[in-house]
Design goal:
With about 650 residues, the protein is α+β, with helices and mostly antiparallel strands. Helix content is about 30%, strand content about 20%.
Amino acid sequence: VIGRMSSTASDIPDEWAPVHGFTIDEVPELGAAEQPKRVSSDHSFVLSSRPIKSTLAQRRRQSVTVCSLPTPLEDVIQTEKTLLSNGSSTSVIHENKIVSNGLSKSGTVSPPLEGPRRAESSHPLTLNSPLGTTCDDGVLLRRATRQDGSESTGITVITWNIAAINNNPFEYWVTHQTPEYLKLMERAQIFIEDAEGTNDIEVWRVFTDDMFHQLKEELAAFGMPGLDEVERLWKTKYRNLPSLSRFLKDKVIGSKRLISMPDRFCNTITTPDGHIEMRPSAISGFEGDLSSVPTWWEHWKRFMFGTEVQVPEGQAKTTVVETLRIIPSAKYPAISPEEEVISVPLQVLALAIFDSILINMLNTIAPTTWSQLKSSLSESLNKNKLERLCDILANTYYETDVIFIQEASQHFIDLVAAALRDSHNLLCPETMDTARKQNSLILVSKEKFYMFSCQEVTTKAMEYIEQKQSVAPGDFLAVAVRGPAGKRFVLASLHGDTNGMTTVPILKAIHEFVQKELPDHLLVMGCDANTTRTEGHFAKSVDQFLEDLDRMRMDSCWDRQNVHAAWTTCSARTFIQPQLQKAKPVTGALSMETTQLKDWILFYGSQLSLQSTSRDNTGVGIFEEKVMPTVSFPSDHALVAATLAFR
């Protein structure tokens, strides 16, 4: 026994509480006020008054080390080493969480937790202290040694931008299993491009004068400003516009953000309690009856003016229309100062016209099929997307040593922590992005990496970044950790800005940090660099990026001779979305213009050598030249995998 005996929780000293190795036959749940209990033979006690999670009870006949708080983690690890030197097979529980699982002298690994892959409790490890002492309940961390006891000669790595959920199931071309999808999209394109103008009727024939007056009354009830001016604009500007060529396709309306801005706020609203409200629209996941414009209109008014939501958390409940914001002319010059004053009611009007035109079009070209297709797309690309992503990782990539993820929401974090809890530890940034829900994550193999040595170094690395460069919260995560063969690593996951212009400054920062402060560490990084095929004033090309890597003596997963033929993203917009100037016909959905090479695995060639690289856009380790996303692979970024060998 190491430490002093203590009969109750209140007696536990600030140093070691009693610690002892024992063989588990059954670990009971201990109540907060219960005294220590004997759980096995031969003077074996669980000397802690805190409950021990049931996952521990799933393990049978394993020698463990148990300690109670407060105990410095460094002392826990040192005690584990002492026990290992005496031939014990041990685990260490710190703050009632298993933080290390050791090996006996023979080098054999303890069996994995039994039971299903998905667990009831799945809180990710957050590196919010120097040693990363906050661990998942029942997490099992294994030595970085192969099952046969031999040391690893390299690591396997994947990087994947899982892509934030797009609330419009029709936004991008997808690979769909039914011919009705292609028919719908082709008919929508023909309808909107309508060379003879038979479909290009005036706005008022779809969104009627009576509907406008109802809209004005609703806005007046909320005290919206400038409604007389809005009515004047309706009569003199919008009412008689051809609905397709001069409204849907109008670049000025697009540049003023009169449709895209309110759609961003009220397409899909998730309240703090998890309740989801969706705008009745062809470009949302709304599941109600939209079989005619009058039916849609009643749903739409009820949603905008009668539905209460609470966003953000802590604020009083408000109706959906009150969540819309003024469009500032300083940021969007297409909006005049006069229009800025009335920009909220203008947004409501423009959004109502836009939604009504799409509902009319879809019920004209595919009255019996469009709604069912939207529901099936919404199921795959929206509602069940995160679960499918986790299934791919858990079933195809559970043996991968390091997994870099970009654009992860909190919900995905919870799901992936459960899906991979038996095989990986999940590392999250201390500073999370809760607004955009786009966080970079790292998952590391429990077989290969020592979590007691893990430390987040994001802030330290960012101290080296050039001035005037900003990084959004959650976009960048860097950790230092000991891994296979006892080697020390700096692992980093990065989601670059839209044009890829901040990617290189961040790379330079992590490069300088590693060279100056952690020169004995192996750097491995997975990133969505947002690189493009061609360079521009506000774009970073693949060639420019490779030159930057050369200056830092970095290597990548891509073969430079064939790098321009590779692509990892596909972004081909359809004709059923607000930005029609970006729409592509089906014949151009998969082209040099719509595909880009954005995803990279980076490392120092002096430390690691590339053994293989592969892409996956099927979820089963196979890449196919086809439009992404698909109903079975709901991301527009391919997963990139690489095998790296130690030099």
